[in-house]
Amino acid sequence: MLGAGMTAVLLTLPAVAISQTTQTLEQRVARMERMLDSGTLLKLLQSVEELKAEVRELRGQLEQQQYSLSQMTDRQRELYLDVDRRLQRVEAAGVAIGAAAAGAAASAPGSAPATIGAAPTAPSGSATTGASPSATGAAAGAAAGGVAAAGAATPTGAPQSASAAVDPVKEQQAYQSAFNLLKAGRYDQAAKSFREFLADYPASKFADNAQYWLGESYYVTRSFDNAMREFEKLIKDHPESQKLTHALLKVGYIHDELGQKDKARDVLTQLTEKYPNSTAAGLAAKRLERMRSQ
């Protein structure tokens, strides 16, 4: 009988296990049915879809902002380059007018170059016999001095100056080549070309512009130490340059970027006070206002 009882127990165990498994499955199905009936799962799915839509929208906004920033950067560079082109035209016009005026003065009757080497003559009725050699020498020296001061006379056979030997076409091409690299956003190559230009043509009429754009090519790549050095060199070597105020502006900007707030405020404030009507002064005032609000 004991054996028969054990057999019966063993036979009932699988049935109990199956019954428990069935109950567990039924409970899980019932729970899922309750979730569906209550709309919880549907709400969860809706929330997921809404999140996906928001992510897509945010990604689109980010792409749009990146595009706008790129457009603004390009526009700012074009504005800089346009200003430079206009300055070049103004400078070229000034050089042409100066050359025309010099030519007119040289061809005018009675100009000093026309009298150099001419034998001294006296008007009729004037007393010339009492003229002393020293007076005659002084007059000749004064005439020669005036011509030398005007730069119109050079000794026969004397070597030409370095500036006279410069090929203006090659000079213009060298500057434009460096400038085109800057326009194309090839800043490292532009910096190298501007350095070479300044070494080859230190007295060029484009020297101050080249000096400024050399600093700018460093500034846009955030090489602030190099940019500071080049802008300060322009301020020192070309105090009459049209680029002076913008060089001062960039010096103030660099101090601000490096966290040197006091120096930045000093430079920008001096710019607004010394050149109040300049475009750079307006930009400096806006930067100072932003610094105060930070």
Structure in words:
The protein is about 75% helix and about 0% strand. The longest helix is centred in the N-terminal third of the chain and has 68 residues, at about 40-105. Among the domains are: about 170-220, Serine Threonine Protein Phosphatase 5, Tetratricopeptide repeat, CATH 1.25.40.10; about 245-294, Alpha Horseshoe (Serine Threonine Protein Phosphatase 5, Tetratricopeptide repeat). Helix 7 runs antiparallel to helix 8 and helix 9 runs antiparallel to helix 10. The termini are far apart. It has eleven helices and no strands. The protein has helices at about 1-40, 40-105, 110-115, 135-150, 170-185, 185-200, 205-220, 225-235, 245-255, 260-275, 280-294. With about 290 residues, it is mainly alpha-helical.
Shape: elongated
Separation of termini? 95 Å
- Major beta sheet summary: none
Q: Per CATH, what is the topology of the domain at 170-221?
A: Serine Threonine Protein Phosphatase 5, Tetratricopeptide repeat
Features:
294 residues, mainly alpha, Serine Threonine Protein Phosphatase 5, Tetratricopeptide repeat, elongated
Topology:
Blueprint: H1 2-38, H2 40-107, H3 112-115, H4 133-150, H5 168-183, H6 187-200, H7 207-219, H8 224-237, H9 244-257, H10 261-274, H11 279-293
Helix pairs in contact: 5-6, 6-7, 7-8, 8-9, 9-10, 9-11, 10-11
Question: TL;DR of this structure?
Answer:
The protein has helices at 2-38, 40-107, 112-115, 133-150, 168-183, 187-200, 207-219, 224-237, 244-257, 261-274, 279-293. With 294 residues, it is mostly helical.
